Amino acid sequence: MPPHVLERATEPFFTTKTQGKGTGLGLAMVHGFVQQSLGRLEIESERGKGTTIRMLFPAADAQSAAPRQPSLDPAHVDPRGQAETILVVEDSHDVLDLAREHLMALGYSVLTARDADEALTVFDKADGKIDLLFTDLVMPGSMNGLALADTVRERVPGIGILLTTGYNDDLLTDGKASAGADVLGKPYRRSDLADRVRSALNGRGRERQVPQAGASRGPRHEG
Questions:
Q1: pLDDT at 2
Q2: Is the entire prediction scored with pTM above 0.85?
């Protein structure tokens, strides 16, 4: 990799591949896993010679390495679904498949769509049986996730809305869909998804506090 690519190699959604050929999540997810394990990711790359990636983890002593009994503490258990139906809208095949797999494992019924137009078709066919819309903000097609959320809420005012994006949630101040919606940043872990989906379902009908103008802004990624 050239130096300017190496600098961004672990950045979520950064990819040198053409559209539809990669998500830019691979190394970002590896980097996140290593950090959660209190480790360090080292990448050495020289154009024309190859790339070496090392994952370094702290050594565990015998006591901490011993097998642990599964925790029964509710704080350590992902919130489970109660067969609610979730419509997931995501144009990335990999991210869509991952979200569907996580949600089904958590006990939800899952419908999927790859853009807003397909989502509205699926939504109408479901005849009011969808409990939550979980949609990406930035998608190809006739409308983005904000407009889709507005349209769906007009049809079913009490539906749960959960938005996901690689951008900061100050994007949501630009549309009506910010009211009553929550945001989950990408990339996300299954535990984060479980918590935010459960929260969005439990909070249906409540208005969300929208970030005020001038709030701190971090780097924005495609998404």
A1: 85
A2: no
